[in-house]
Amino acid sequence: PKLAAMPSEILRQYTGVYLPRAGATLTVREFHGGLALEERGFVRMVLLPESGDHFYAPGQDWLFAGGDGYHVEFVRDAGGRVTHFVVHQGGREFIVPRMSAAKPPDNHAH
């Protein structure tokens, strides 16, 4: 895949808490020019920007069945807010809904 540089203000649009399965959460954070998926405070996967809302996780596996990498597409609502992401691997798709957006810093606090 061809990787692209993505500015921080765009990467921040994807950060927040996502629900991969019942009782589990993944936190998406900005990480070295890409995104990290964290579970219980540990980085589980790193996503590198490809284009637009598309990212690639090289040498990593969503299904834990093989490590040939997978693609992630973040999906937005009509207002441009990211609502979930879709993992594409081995001809299968996994939808991971977003629970909340990361809280923006409060610049008005005194």
Number of helices: 1
Q: Overall mean pLDDT score?
A: 84
Given as residue ranges, the uncertain stretches (5+ residues, pLDDT < 50) are 104-110
Spatial separation of the terminal alpha carbons: 46 Å
The assembly state of the depicted protein chains is: single chain
Mind sketching the topology for me?
Blueprint: H1 8-11, E1 16-21, E2 24-31, E3 34-39, E4 42-51, E5 54-57, E6 70-76, E7 82-89, E8 92-101
Antiparallel strand pairs: 1-2, 1-8, 2-3, 3-4, 4-5, 5-6, 6-7, 7-8
Account of the protein in words:
The protein has one helix and eight strands, in the order αββββββββ. The longest helix is centred in the N-terminal third of the chain and has 4 residues, at 8-11. It has one helix spanning 8-11; strands spanning 16-21, 24-31, 34-39, 42-51, 54-57, 70-76, 82-89, 92-101. 4% of the residues lie in helices and 54% in strands. The chain has 110 residues and is mainly β. The chain has an eight-stranded antiparallel β-barrel with strand order 1-2-3-4-5-6-7-8.
What features would you highlight for this structure?
8-stranded antiparallel beta barrel; 110 residues; disordered C terminus; 54% strand; mainly beta; 1 helix
